[in-house]
Design goal:
Layout: E1 11-16, E2 19-23, E3 29-33, H1 42-64, E4 71-80, E5 88-98, H2 104-118, H3 120-124, E6 131-137
Helix pairs in contact: 1-2
Length: 138
């Protein structure tokens, strides 16, 4: 495996209480709230990162298949281990795709490629936290 240049640094700055602002030093920020009151919690952000990474790939793959999407939603269901640290045990990504001409075969291929090959966030997770998926076409 060949290493690539470093990713852009991410900075997390305490905003008071259990709230933190995260993002690139000169870029937009997102509020993370450990209590999940004023923003998503850290674990929620992990799940959102998996879903957003996979969704980005699915949109691009569907475009390359000449089947652009009108809408895409990804709902994530996750389980965590019981003991501390309560890390991710498994996740299921539920994809809902909408658009003219979407076939089950094209959708399945796009999602499979995204989750198993292209999604760097999913690939960065430890091997014993499986990520699976379902697909719905509307």
């Amino acid at each position: 495996m060949t290493a690539t240049p470093h990713a852009s640094p991410i900075q997390v700055e305490w905003a008071g209480g259990s709230q933190f602002d995260a993002g690139r030093p000169d870029g937009p920020k997102v509020r993370i709230d450990a209590d999940a009151r004023s923003g998503p919690g850290p674990f929620d952000m992990l799940l959102a990162a998996i879903a957003a990474c996979a969704a980005t790939d699915v949109v691009e793959i569907m475009r390359k298949q000449r089947t652009p999407l009108d809408a895409l939603k990804v709902r994530v269901e996750a389980t965590r281990v019981g003991e501390i640290p309560r890390r991710l045990a498994a996740a299921v990504l539920h994809f809902t795709l909408q658009g003219a001409g979407i076939t089950p075969e094209k959708a399945a291929r796009a999602v499979e490629l995204s989750v198993t090959k292209y999604c760097s966030v999913r690939s960065s997770l430890i091997a014993d936290a499986p990520v699976t998926w379902t697909i719905e076409i509307v």
